[in-house]
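== Sequence and structure of one protein ==
=== Format: two labelled lines per protein ===
==== Data for this protein ====
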Amino acid sequence: MEKNINSDWVDLLETEFEKPYFKTLWNFVEDEYALHTCYPPKSEIFNAFNTCAFKDVKVVILGQDPYHGPGQANGLCFSVADGIPHPPSLKNIFKEIETDLGTPYPASGNLDRWATQGILLLNATLTVREHEAGSHQNKGWEIFTDQIISLISSKKQNVIFLLWGGYAKKKIKLIDTTKHNALTSGHPSPLSANRGYWFGNNHFSKTNSLLLHNTQAEIQW
């Protein structure tokens, strides 16, 4: 199984791919895709990197696990393929954008339109077995994606990290907050949102304000 990944990321990650943990991880992923239905499709495992080159990253949104239902996961956290019903967390993201920015709720849940504007939509775990949430956790993906966060933190300036929920908030230890911004809130899942930990965080307008302050183009959410 080929690692289809954007060339400017490959230059950064070549040494990572050669580490023993990643070779073990990749053998596991190959076996899983051979024996089971897994998501996202093989060609989209590294979609977050292929839709947002390293040089273009200005915002990072962290998720945990890909969606595990048929046709949902497309390699971008919180995103679903065109024509797929919006999962509850994505609905709450779009509702917050509606109230925060006054923009209409979108028809498509495919967030590649965000990725192409410089948002890295990164799940901590990049693959999952069908209908088995968390089935590919603790196999090595988290080591890999933590390294991604650390590389962005060390090699770039003024990146905005959106950390939603307890799991994502723990990643702040990987981020140099003296040169980057980290915005935290509850998770957009119904459990968290309905308890008042998500709605009203205004992360989308805050992100655009920070981008303008850094003389960067706003995101068209």
